[in-house]
């Protein structure tokens, strides 16, 4: 397969059944190069729908599909790409730092500092957690999963019984008292996103 630079493309439409390499392996190669490209599977079978979550697929389009279905997916892609360009601005040290929402994996609060974890760095800002909540929780992809911690649901690699496993390998625990509600929120978000509702 030719080396794929994820950041150069907004979206990739991939058939699962292809000669030489299947679509799921192709998607995995794309993900190894980054998260900047939306992946939409186009296939004749629902067999790989669950597996598509592993490569953080944006949508799963069954053949034969209509022009209307394709148009809906393009509209959803445009909404998602617009969200990717959104950012928050926080004071970090002596200057304001602009943090792209799509770069945020999770945030936590330590020693009076908000810590914004991205793939590249940790941005620290001296502010209260309730004040920070107002900046982030207006966006549907963010979920407060236990006291003073917010995850980006777009950056969840896997959900198990006790934790969210994030794409950077970090495990973020789920609050015991709210476990069922939080898992339900995540499932609803993933379903809505897969069906073009977000």
Structural overview:
The protein is an alpha+beta fold and 198 residues long. It has 2 domains: 6-84, Response regulator (Rossmann fold); 87-194, OB fold (Dihydrolipoamide Acetyltransferase, E2P) (Beta Barrel), CATH 2.40.50. It is built from 4 helices and 13 strands. The protein has helices at residues 23-32, 67-84, 129-136, 179-194; strands at residues 11-15, 38-43, 59-62, 87-92, 95-100, 104-110, 113-118, 122-125, 142-146, 149-152, 156-159, 163-166, 171-173. The strands form 4 sheets. Strands 8-7-6-10-9 form a 5-stranded antiparallel beta sheet. Strands 1-2-3 form a 3-stranded parallel beta sheet, with helices on both faces. A hairpin with a 4-residue loop joins strand 12 (163-166) and strand 13 (171-173). The mean pLDDT is 88.
Helical coverage, percent range: 25-40%
Low-confidence stretches: none
Radius of gyration: 18 Å
**Record field, number of beta strands:** 13
Helix/strand structural class:
alpha+beta
Order of helices and strands: EHEEHEEEEEHEEEEEH
Give a quick account of the main beta sheet: strands, pairing sense, barrel closure: 5 strands, antiparallel
Strand content: 25-35%
């Amino acid at each position: 397969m030719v080396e794929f630079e994820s950041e150069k493309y907004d979206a990739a439409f991939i058939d699962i059944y292809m000669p030489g390499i299947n679509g799921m392996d192709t998607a995995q190669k794309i993900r190894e190069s980054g998260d900047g490209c939306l992946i939409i599977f186009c296939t004749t079978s629902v067999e790989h729908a669950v597996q598509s979550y592993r490569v953080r697929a944006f949508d799963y389009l069954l053949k034969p599909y209509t022009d209307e279905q394709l148009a809906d997916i393009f509209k959803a892609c445009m909404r998602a790409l617009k969200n990717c360009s959104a950012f928050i601005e926080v004071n970090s040290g002596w200057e304001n730092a602009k943090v792209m929402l799509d770069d945020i994996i999770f945030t936590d609060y330590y020693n009076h500092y908000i810590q914004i974890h991205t793939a590249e760095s940790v941005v620290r800002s001296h502010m209260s957690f309730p004040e920070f909540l107002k900046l982030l929780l207006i966006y549907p992809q963010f979920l407060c999963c236990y006291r003073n911690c917010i995850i980006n649901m777009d950056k969840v690699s896997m959900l198990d019984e006790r934790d969210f496993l994030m794409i950077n390998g970090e495990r973020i625990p789920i609050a015991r008292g709210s476990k069922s509600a939080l898992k339900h929120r995540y499932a609803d978000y993933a379903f809505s996103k897969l069906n073009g509702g977000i």
